[in-house]
Specification:
Elements (H helix, E strand, L loop, with lengths): L1 E4 L6 E4 L3 E3 L2 E3 L5 H8 L6 E8 L3 E7 L7 E7 L1 E8 L1 E2 L7 E7 L5 E4 L3 E7 L3 E8 L8 E3 L22 H4 L10 E2 L5
């Protein structure tokens, strides 16, 4: 496995060692010892999966403390632009984001620690997306930041008219209205 640091410390791209031939392919999609060497101890307790059509934008979502979640995400089929936004008030990278292409062709995963919002947009005909979470989902702890917050200035790659959002996601607050994560410098 190749672990790639991003512009946001603690947000990591994981590239598997891919082995393919005429029969198909094989790769390790998760290996606890290597993962924890780079990301720290994480105990994944829930796996989720979604299927979405071209232009579907899901996010930017998070769970409020004490139900916050770290996520290890990957696109099992198709291609998405995946986004992580630092929501940790006081962090040197507060309000910054990273954008990573995840696809069934590159087999990449993205690790998003607690204190970050997450979202993605589908750029292929369809996409099947997988999430490993380190805390159980709690509907009362749902939180989010609106996808087009001008402070974030995220390039979602597609034209706004091509995007399909849930009514809930259209009404999410601005980053300036979200203040539930505090930065703790543990380095």
């Amino acid at each position: 496995m190749n672990i790639i640091k991003t512009a946001l410390p603690d947000v990591l791209i994981i590239e598997p060692d891919f082995h393919g031939d005429h029969r198909g392919y094989f790769f390790e999609s998760f290996r606890k010892d290597i993962f924890e060497k780079h990301a720290g101890e994480v105990n994944f307790v829930q796996d989720n999966q979604s299927k979405s059509n071209y232009g579907v934008l899901r996010g930017l979502h998070f769970q409020k403390p004490p139900f916050s979640q770290a996520k290890l995400v990957q696109c099992l089929q198709g291609e998405v632009i995946d986004i992580a936004v630092d929501l940790r008030f006081g962090s040197p990278t507060y309000g910054n984001h990273v954008s990573v292409r995840l696809s069934d062709a590159n087999h990449r995963q993205l690790f998003i620690p607690r204190g970050f919002a997450h979202g993605f947009v589908v750029v292929s005909e369809t996409a099947v997306f997988s999430y490993k979470c380190d805390n159980y989902y709690n509907p009362d702890a749902d939180g989010g930041v609106v996808w087009n917050d001008p402070q974030l200035n995220i390039d979602w790659v597609l034209l706004p008219d091509d995007l399909k959002l849930s009514e809930k996601d259209k009404k999410l607050p601005l980053l300036s209205e979200v203040n539930c994560f505090k930065y703790k410098n543990n380095r």
